[in-house]
Sequence to fold (323 residues):
Amino acid sequence: MIRSTIRGTGSYLPEKILTNAELEVLVDTSDEWITQRSGIRERRIAGPDETTGDMAIAAARAALDNAALTAADLDGVIVATTTPDRTFPAVAAKVQAALGMNPGPAFDVQAVCTGFVYALSVADNFIKAGQMKRILVIGAEKMSSIIDWKDRTTCVLFGDGAGALILEASEGEGTLEDQGIFSTHLYSNGAFRDLLYTDGGPSSTGTSGHIVMQGREVFKHAVTCMAEVVQEALDANKVTPDQIDWLVPHQANSRIIEATAKKLDLPMDKVVMTVERHGNTSAASIPLALHEAVADGRIQRGQLLLLEAMGGGLTWGAALLRF
Ligand code: ACO
Fold:
């Protein structure tokens, strides 16, 4: 049976670090409030001329190096992003050209913070259907470009960056011992679209708008939706929480992550946490966290990983895979 395995990972973070102390000067907030409510201490901010596409390209190059592959080995590219360089064409087209890939599918996926899980699922299904053998999957965001820097309820939470991985078709036995993705689970409930949105867009205001969020409401849904979708991923594969080696969650808020880990009865030393240093990088947060834990040797080949995310839409999703 065809399985999509992770051949390599890579990431890119902008140089500039914005600390909570620096935010105290911009808005009426405190390091204590931000840390207690979200777990965030600092985040990276892209340079004025640095775009989502630039960060995506840097992460993609790192993933290609890590996989010991060249652009010619790739059949397609999918970028999960909410903050594209241009309304069109897709960021993926820019990545494709910059890497010198052969013509093939290149498109963006927009599911806000769940974007990477959506993109991974789309790529996995292309591979399972036999339509592509190797796909570059990227999550890249310049969230700083859609933040209202006068709004303390949102500007303290987000950051910029990009993460990438290369999915490759391989033969599996069809058992839980296989390497690769076992299942992905995607959801959206558009009835909640006004809990988290931008107050603009090309066909409404003609601008990209700024993030508006009912934080407390989103928080409540996040904890419930996350617990449900994670359980669904485990049940679908007859896996019990103790079999999970690593939870690699979307990094929105340490309290949401801790609540999910608690529901699974997973100790926090089995959870990859980057929110403290990266903030919420939306679609980039899972591949950034994944690459960090692979690069520092925490995540090892053969380990069972559970990925989960939740974001605007409201969207949510999970993926279970063996690295
Ligand atoms: N500094 C100081 N005080 C603040 C700040 C700030 N930066 N922001 C808000 N406050 C104040 C509020 O005005 C409020 O004051 P009041 O009680 O006098 O009205 C008080 O702090 C409490 O505000 P809440 O919003 O109720 O605080 P809460 O405990 O819910 O924490 C937070 C806010 C961190 C946003 C939390 O709700 C959260 O993490 N929500 C989920 C975010 C998320 O997961 N989003 C999904 C992904 S994002 C995406 O898809 C793009």
